[in-house]
Amino acid sequence: MVDASPSAASRAFVDSLERALLRDIGALRREIELFPDEAMIWQTMPGIGNSAGTLALHIAGNLQHYFGAVLGGTGYRRDRDAEFSRRDVPRAEVLDQLDRGAEAVRSTLARMEAAALQATYPEPVGGVTLPTERFLLHLATHLAFHLGQAGYLRRALTGSAITSKAVAIGELVP
Hints:
Layout: H1 6-34, H2 38-41, H3 52-71, H4 80-85, H5 91-110, H6 114-118, H7 132-158
Helix pairs in contact: 1-5, 1-7, 3-5, 3-7
């Protein structure tokens, strides 16, 4: 018999959300790793405002702030302006920041309770307040959006069609 309680449904949502987020963080890591050299991580093209390195730092800061600091109480201090202004950050540091974002997701969702998902997210974002569950779904789609941007930019800059196997459905299987 399937447990249809709100608590079981919330745990299933959290587990699915965690799998999707960790899959996409891993794919963004692979995109950064596929650049042939560190300098290209910071290149853009006409009409493109953010490099893949900038997108990765932004996602890492976003996850560490919204999952880690706000929900997990990690004490992380976000510098959003630096996410968009830093350049020539070594690849190893970019990857480390993504790993820290993944850990913020893991540790916070491991402790997430059903009631917290239904509560209002503790911090208004862009003047909007949402239920935590809906805001976390927004964070997952935000990550996927920037993952796609980084992938297209890498292929356009390098001329390489090598795939990072982003959004591989098999990574969602328990």
